[in-house]
Amino acid sequence: MLKFYNSLSREKEKFVPHDREIVKMYSCGPTVYMRPHIGNMRAYLFMDNIRRVLKYNGYKIEGVMNITDVGHLTSDADEGEDKMLLASQREKKTPWDIAKYYTDCFMKDVKKLNVDLPEHICPATSVIEEIISFVKELLDKGFAYETSKGIYFDITKFADYGKLGMDVNSKKAGARIAVDDEKKHPADFALWIKAPKEHIMQWSSPWGMGYPGWHIECSAIGKKYLGDYIDIHTGGIDHKTIHHENEIAQSDCLEGHKVVHFWMHLEFLQIDGGKMSKSQNNILTIEDLENNGFSAEDFRFFYFNAHYSKQQNFTYDSLLASKNALKNFKLAVGEHKKSSEKLSQEKINEYEKEFLESINDDLNMPKALAVCQKLLKEKKSQDVYNLILKFNQILGLNFCEEEKDLPQEIRDLAEKRWQSKLDRDYQTADQLRQELLEKGYVIKDSKDGYKIQLKD
Ligand code: AMP
Ligand code: ZN
Question: Could you tell me which CATH class the domain 17-266 is placed in?
Answer without folding.
Answer: alpha beta
